[in-house]
Design brief:
Elements (H helix, E strand, L loop, with lengths): L4 E5 L10 H11 L3 E4 L4 H4 L9 H12 L3 E5 L7 H6 L6 E2 L2 E2 L13 H18 L5 E5 L12 H14 L4 H8 L23 H27 L7 E3 L1 E2 L2 E2 L3 E3 L6 H4 L7 E4 L10 H13 L5 E5 L13 H11 L4 E4 L25 H20 L8 E4 L2 H9 L4 E2 L2 E2 L4 H14 L5 E3 L11 E4 L7 H12 L3 E5 L21 H4 L1 E7 L5 E3 L11 E9 L3 E7 L7 E8 L2 E6 L1 E2 L2 H14 L11 E7 L4 E8 L5 E4 L14 E3 L5 E2 L4 E4 L4 E9 L2
Parallel strand pairs: 1-2, 1-13, 2-3, 3-6, 6-7, 8-11, 11-12, 14-17, 14-18, 18-19, 19-25
Antiparallel strand pairs: 4-5, 9-10, 15-16, 20-22, 21-23, 22-26, 23-24, 24-25, 27-28, 28-33, 29-32, 30-31, 30-33
Helix pairs in contact: 8-13, 11-12, 14-17
């Protein structure tokens, strides 16, 4: 891209009175250079079947064009109009809990033929109205798309066809792989295939969830093919992926395979929401950004993030700006708020936009003006930042689903507290705080060797080929850190019969036969120094088969079993973490793993977060982000990437001041410094 995009979602259809001209004026003053429109207003664009009214869309595009503001047009397919449901009630998804009711968004069956007929028609009519407009720079497919639990008769039949291809019509093989003889769940003919919504079989249920994720990929690809018929060469196709939601963006999305779904797009996009005020750490911004950057291994768009968000998320002074640069530091080429104005009715009334309900200037808007000015002045140095990380985290939708069926801590006294994303974020959170930047990779990644260190959190369900590939990665000189619950089941969530950790035990040099929920268990080690806190959640009783035991359990019942091990295998090393520890202990273990892999990084630690990238001028950009209410200090080391011994000056992009090697940087509360390395980097 030629510039950083800075903008907001804008819905003239939602406004209580006509204020387009005033809004455009305020946008220009704030440095807004892009708006997102149309993706949630199907019933306005088609108020009656076959009757179209795109006046709001064209009016906004006209106004933005005159103001030299770009537009991203969203297809309006994620909220169906009432007339459609009245005529075709089955467009509403049939789920585990029954037929959805009209009212909420995302309540439809994305495979329903009537829905797809009307969706294609409105997309084509919208494209005819917008694709030729010079300030329309791209198109967003739908909105945070998922399968919405659709499981009606048509979906069940499609799933059966999927299974026929998967198992080549061999029912015996399917019954064996899924273990369907249990509780008389065996299927002896395709005609008697039962409704999957009631299954108690984790393998069959997980396969259906995998199939539902495929429906999302197919649906987005279908929309992309329609849009491609109309879009210009210079217009992009994107989608706003979201994440597992725990009141904010938290982890890997259970209902979408981002890596597969993103293939039909020219650039990936994301919606990232997070706590603010005293709870602002930047971790959610970094996690979401790193994940979405990784799905297409390039820059991405932030299509939605909070301005004021929930009333409780109103940012402290300086935080809106810090948040904006945090997105850019992860490789985003845009920051767009949901949304420009606050709503005056409906379910999201108190999810506040950049402007509050009175539409007057406020502190968030005034801070946005600063961001907009700086993006305009510095954007050429910050757009298209490229990262070359040496660390990756392997994430798996199949393992996530498997551990939904079989939770890690399925203790009757405390069931299902810890899931897959808890383990992923447990590792990521500590790496983030120690400024060890990373990418994410998926089970089908063929280029593992580009990374010096790969983390494998709770890879519960995986094909043997992937586990062998990880063994090979280590043998060739890679460094691996895998956690408990890895390799336990195959790709069909069927528990392996081998000694655990199955297949991976070859590179790990360890085995175990039992596991437990720890109670009053601590770690002891002659290798690590000052391990703190008890083991919690889950523990495996590791027995060395050649691996060095780095830490063992300290407990009268479990004495002699290993907890953390490392094995030299081929040219590389494989570390295994057989239990869940506290944060300080995990820090010690991770620091050692990074050292073992020869990975160095900035000396600073949270609340100073250091993020790096290479810009279009071939210069290294270094962000120092202060997530605290106190002044923090950092040291510019001045090391050139080509010659790590050479002292290299830098320029503070915001102040224009030259920074010399060894100089101490002061970073104001909830503020940042951005340095451009004056040395050329490869």
């Amino acid at each position: 891209m030629e510039k950083l995009l800075y903008g907001a979602a804008y819905y003239e259809e939602y406004l209580p009175y006509d204020r387009l001209e005033q809004d455009v004026e305020m946008m220009k003053a704030a440095g807004i250079n892009v708006v997102r429109i149309a993706e949630s207003t199907w019933s306005t664009c088609e108020p009656k079947e076959g009757v179209f009214d795109f006046s709001h869309v064209t009016r906004v595009i006209d106004a933005m064009e005159q103001a030299e503001i770009d537009v991203i047009v969203g297809t309006p397919t994620y909220a169906v109009p009432a007339w459609m449901v009245k005529k075709h009630p089955k467009v509403l998804a049939l789920t585990k809990t029954g037929r959805n009711l009209y009212g909420p968004r995302q309540n439809m069956d994305i495979t329903n033929t009537d829905y797809l007929f009307y969706a294609e028609r409105v997309i084509r009519r919208l494209m005819e109205q917008t694709a030729h407009r010079k300030n329309v720079i791209g198109f967003q497919l739908d909105n945070e798309t998922k399968s919405y639990g659709t499981a009606g008769e048509n979906v069940q039949k499609a799933f059966q066809e999927y299974l026929k291809k998967e198992f080549e019509y061999d029912l015996d093989q399917m019954n064996h792989q899924f273990g369907l003889d249990y509780w008389s769940n065996r299927v002896n003919s395709w005609e008697e295939f039962p409704d999957v919504r009631g299954t108690i079989n984790g393998s069959l249920g997980a396969e259906f969830q995998k199939f539902q994720r495929k429906l999302v990929t197919d649906f987005l690809n279908w929309q992309a093919e329609i849009v491609k018929e109309y879009k210009r060469e210079d217009q992009f196709i994107t989608h706003n992926f979201d994440f597992e939601w725990r009141g904010y963006s938290y982890g890997v999305q259970p209902e979408v395979n981002h890596f597969e779904a993103a293939k039909c797009m020219t650039i990936a996009g994301a919606d990232i929401y997070h706590p603010s005020q005293d709870l602002l750490t930047g971790a959610e911004i970094a996690f979401g950004g790193d994940l979405i950057r990784s799905v297409k291994r390039g820059n991405y768009l932030i299509l939605e993030t909070e301005a004021q968000g929930f009333p409780g998320w109103t940012p402290y002074p300086g935080q809106l700006r810090l948040q904006a640069y945090s997105h850019i530091a992860s490789g985003a080429n845009s920051v767009m708020y949901w949304h420009w104005h606050s709503l005056h009715n409906a379910v999201e009334t108190y999810w506040k936009g950049l402007l509050s309900h009175d539409f007057a200037e406020n502190e968030a808007y005034r801070e946005a003006k600063i961001i907009g000015r700086e993006f305009r002045e510095l954007g050429s140095h910050l757009v298209n930042l490229q990262k070359q990380n040496r660390i990756a985290i392997l994430v798996s939708n199949e393992s996530l689903t498997g551990l939904e069926w079989f939770p890690i801590d399925a203790d009757p006294a405390n069931p299902g507290k810890t899931g897959y994303n808890d383990v992923v974020r447990w590792l990521y959170h500590r790496l983030y705080r120690m400024n060890a930047e990373c990418d994410f990779i998926h089970p089908g990644c063929e280029d593992l060797e580009q990374y010096d260190l790969i983390f494998v959190p709770a890879l519960y369900a995986a094909p043997e080929s992937l586990l062998k590939r990880l063994n090979e990665y280590v043998a060739k000189g890679g460094h691996l850190l895998a956690t408990f619950k890895s390799g336990f089941a195959d790709e069909y969530v069927k528990v392996r019969t081998q000694v655990q950790p199955a297949v991976l035990g070859e590179c790990l040099g360890v085995e175990y036969h039992q596991f437990a929920f720890p109670s009053n268990v601590r770690l002891k080690s002659e290798y690590y120094q000052a391990l703190e806190g008890p083991v919690h959640t889950f523990m495996e009783f590791l027995i060395s088969r050649g691996a060095q035991v780095l830490a063992a359990y300290e407990h009268e019942g479990w004495d002699g079993y290993g907890a953390v091990t490392r094995n030299h295998y081929g040219k590389g090393t494989a570390t295994y973490l057989g239990c869940m520890t506290g944060e300080k202990t995990l820090d010690i273990i991770l620091e050692d793993a990074l050292k073992c892999a020869g990975i160095s990084r900035a000396a600073e630690r949270f609340p100073v977060i250091v993020r790096k990238g290479r810009n279009d001028f071939g210069k290294e950009i270094v962000f120092y982000l202060n997530y605290s209410p106190k002044v923090q200090k950092a040291v510019w080391q001045g090391k050139d990437t080509i010659d790590s011994c050479a002292g290299v000056e830098a320029v503070d992009l915001i102040s224009g001041v030259e920074i010399k090697p060894g100089e101490v940087l002061e970073i104001a509360p909830w503020n940042l410094r951005i340095l451009e390395n004056s040395g050329t980097i490869l």
